[in-house]
């Protein structure tokens, strides 16, 4: 064992108490500081429930949640600190002018239970739990969202693994500008978003299980992100990218609805997209979406298996979709499109088997005639919709629907080139 790993400090040595009233933030922060001064190591949280306000992790320190350990967020909002940083994070703002406005400079939005600011070679590991206790902040987003559970800004070589996050008061993990970091074998229940990253290079999210009220994985401005072998259950979207990304791989994920936990704002449990790529969906996010590879995905009981929507200041290069299976798709065709000037160069879809629930309305096809797209409740086709794309290639595609549907299976709008090989359509009984 290296010296770095041999340094193990218990929070009990600094006066932490497992009870229902003590705020242990001072004791835990003193343990972290002592560990960092010795060159780094492990700060251990033993079995018990430890109430705490804001904890600040430091470089070269791993916070270990032992079996039976619970870090529980303090009920008092004054116990939580807002983000203090000189780093310009303004490009990551979203939702300006709405109740969902998100800005790292907002002292309410940036409150967090655990802060990881300007650190490297650090992280949190399990098998214990962090409980955000659904703390409400009436000055926060939507006049109800409280502190994030974990906030990371400018982190490198960070590792978060094996622990559980329950009842986040806002996002379970919110990260800005992280590099060479991993999120492995996490279990996230309730709250709003699970893992939300705005700005990253070389990041992995793998073998996690999430049952979230809002998007399970979200964010954008990702470069070289790998999302694989995850189980995602959401009352919103499984994966939602709201800022353009490049070199993105999503693979071997099981994404299903309805959500086991209600969306905390609306109370709904119906799932939206399994995967939604919508740069500019929550405000201006200019840039290129390119080298997107989505493969070996199983989606069940979602609004749509995949939705890609470009805004006017986005373009897309290549989007490749391979080995996707979807069952009980409740309403929307798979789609890659823009409603304005955004253009996609190439879409490749192969080895796909999608089953939709039909809409039994003989008059539905004619309803779309001369209707502007912003009035469409669904697409004028039931299987796949493509708009403003250079080339679309389909190979080994089976599109099926249950019940009745009177729309065409695939629709092209301003697609320069289309090539189909072994594309089949089927109506199923029942």
From TrEMBL:
The keyword Translocase does not apply. Coiled coil: none annotated. Keywords: Glycosidase, Hydrolase. SUPFAM superfamilies: Pectin lyase-like. It comes from the Bacteria. Belongs to the glycosyl hydrolase 28 family. PANTHER family: PECTIN LYASE-RELATED (PTHR31339), PLASMIN AND FIBRONECTIN-BINDING PROTEIN A (PTHR31339:SF9). This is Right-handed parallel beta-helix repeat-containing protein. It comes from Prevotella illustrans.
């Amino acid at each position: 064992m290296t010296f770095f790993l041999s340094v193990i400090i218990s929070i009990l040595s600094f006066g932490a108490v497992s009870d229902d009233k003590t705020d242990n933030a001072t004791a835990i922060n003193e343990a972290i500081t002592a560990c960092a001064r010795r060159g780094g190591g492990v700060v251990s949280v033993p079995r018990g429930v430890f109430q705490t306000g804001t904890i600040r992790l430091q470089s070269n320190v791993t916070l270990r949640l032992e079996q039976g350990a619970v870090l529980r967020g303090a009920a008092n909002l004054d116990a939580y600190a807002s983000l203090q940083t000189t780093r310009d994070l303004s490009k990551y703002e979203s939702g300006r002018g709405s109740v969902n406005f998100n800005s790292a400079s907002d002292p309410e939005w940036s409150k967090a239970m655990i802060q990881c600011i300007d650190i490297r070679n650090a992280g949190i590991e399990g098998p214990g739990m962090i409980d955000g206790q659904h703390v409400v902040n009436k000055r926060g987003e939507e006049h109800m969202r409280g502190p994030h559970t974990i906030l990371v800004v400018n982190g490198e070589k960070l590792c978060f693994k094996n622990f559980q996050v329950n009842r986040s008061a806002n996002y379970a993990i919110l990260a800005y500008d992280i590099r060479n970091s991993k999120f492995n074998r996490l279990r996230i229940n309730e709250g709003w978003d699970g893992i939300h990253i705005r700005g990253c290079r070389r990041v992995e999210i793998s073998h996690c299980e999430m049952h979230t009220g809002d998007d399970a994985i979200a964010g954008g401005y990702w470069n070289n992100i790998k999302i694989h072998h995850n189980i995602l259950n959401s009352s919103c979207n499984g994966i939602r990218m709201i800022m353009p990304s490049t070199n993105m791989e999503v693979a071997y994920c099981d994404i299903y609805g309805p959500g086991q936990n209600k969306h905390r704002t609306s109370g709904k449990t119906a799932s939206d997209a399994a995967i939604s790529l919508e740069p500019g969906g929550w405000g201006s996010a200019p840039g290129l979406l390119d080298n997107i590879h989505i493969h070996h995905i199983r989606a069940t009981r979602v609004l749509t298996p995949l939705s890609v929507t470009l805004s006017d200041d986005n373009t897309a290069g290549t989007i490749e979709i391979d080995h996707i299976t979807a069952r009980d798709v409740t309403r929307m065709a798979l789609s890659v499109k823009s409603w304005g000037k955004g253009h996609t160069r190439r879409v490749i879809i192969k080895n796909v088997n999608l089953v939709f629930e039909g809409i039994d309305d003989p008059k539905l096809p004619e309803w779309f005639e001369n209707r502007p797209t912003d009035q469409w409740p669904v697409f004028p086709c039931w299987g796949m919709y493509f708009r403003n794309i250079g080339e679309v290639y389909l190979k080994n595609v089976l599109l099926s629907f249950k019940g009745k549907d009177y729309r065409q299976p695939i629709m092209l709008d301003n697609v320069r080139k289309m090539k189909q090989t072994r594309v089949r359509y089927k109506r199923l009984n029942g």
